[in-house]
């Protein structure tokens, strides 16, 4: 039997996410909604942590027990402690997978891993978004249709301040005319990274079955293949005799 993938869904969940406009869509928070559909998948065990937990929900114990971390943050990016953001970056470099959702494009771990600003254009106008599968053979696109429609999303637009992705799996079109690389992958050292654009907190994007499929696929794709005990540079013994 394949090993169970342990997922932690991290959310900055605070009073803002408990206002009726958001709580009516996600009564227990987006983190619990995401963990809920992941836990229906055999081979995945998902838990949650939030910014008000001890060590902001990012203790060594939690991260060392996490195969894939999912990150949703927006208005509290700056409140995430620098040492904890660095800890997340290092766990990814050592092999943990990470999935950044929606406004996580300017979280400290996202910018720390990718070395760019994550800058993009945005608009909140309750507009349609059509998600196109740009790389249908990629494992994250498995079972995802050629295209699907989200009735309402926040618009994110190019130019997107990211390095050239390893794969652009999805591209989104927005009703107002903009386009965006909405599903992209990277690898940093041993860790796999996926960013997905959908998921503004007042819209039911994480209830959409295609989005659920994408995130579930991404968890399976990003699971660690190996984890390094440290990031030290080892001094190497010579295998052959060096004549010098
Ligand atoms: Zn948003």
The CATH H-level superfamily of the domain at 5-115 and 183-222 is Class I glutamine amidotransferase (GATase) domain
Strand content: 25-35%
The top-level CATH class of the domain at 5-115 and 183-222 is Alpha Beta
Based on helices, strands and strand pairing, what is the structural class? alpha/beta
Q: What's the assembly state of these chains?
A: single chain
Main sheet record: 9 strands, mixed
- The parts where pLDDT drops under 50 for at least 5 residues are none
Ligand species: zinc ion
| Total number of strands | 9
Order of helices and strands: EHHEHEHEHEEEEEH
Second CATH tier, the architecture of the domain at 5-115 and 183-222: 3-Layer(aba) Sandwich
Task: Give the CATH topology of the domain at 5-115 and 183-222.
Answer: Rossmann fold
The backbone outline, from C-alpha atoms, is: globular
Major sheet strand order: 2-1-3-4-9-8-7-5-6
How confident overall, as mean pLDDT?
Answer: 97
Query: Roughly how much helix do the residues carry, as a percent range?
Result: 10-25%
Specify the number of helices. 6
